[in-house]
Write a structure and sequence with these properties.
alpha/beta; D-Maltodextrin-Binding Protein, domain 2; three-stranded antiparallel β-sheet
Length: about 150
């Protein structure tokens, strides 16, 4: 089974363009349920974005693939019909081939090793690989580190 260890966390954001001071609502999707660990993370992310931008930006979350599967959500971000998505690494190499390396089984020894690599220079360099493809990857998130 493919390693589904890491998520491109709230990762594929396109088109953060300069907009007037009016409130901007951004759509964010995930393929799993609102009460999942990632769904709860989206709620927290939305709350923090609204708070830290003094209400200028509001995130509207969509759960359980209601806007489409992971690949469709990435395509929607690429097309500009959706602003954000949280996705597993599974479909990402279709858009950013360099990300395929993250699906190698047992790539990381443990959780601490995964965090050290992805939060360090290697992970930051990998996030930069998204920009030439028209995406802004914000961060890495975890969905378990070692799967069989």
């Amino acid at each position: 089974m493919k390693l589904k260890a890491l998520l491109v966390g709230l990762s594929l954001a396109a088109g953060f363009v300069s907009i007037s001071s009016a409130q901007v609502t951004m759509r964010n999707s995930i393929s799993i349920a609102e009460d999942s660990h990632q769904g709860i993370g989206l709620v927290t992310f939305a709350r923090e974005v609204e708070k830290r931008t003094n209400g200028r930006y509001k995130i509207q979350n969509f759960y359980s693939g209601s806007l489409g599967g992971e690949r469709e959500s990435i395509e929607a971000v690429q097309l500009g019909t959706q602003e954000l998505t949280l996705t597993s690494t599974g479909p990402v190499p279709n858009f950013v081939p360099e990300a395929k390396i993250l699906d190698i089984p047992f790539l990381f020894r443990d959780k601490a090793h995964a965090h050290a690599v992805l939060d360090g220079p290697i992970g930051q360099e990998m996030l930069k690989q998204f920009e030439p493809k028209g995406f802004k990857a914000l961060a890495w998130a975890e969905n378990g580190v070692r799967h069989m």
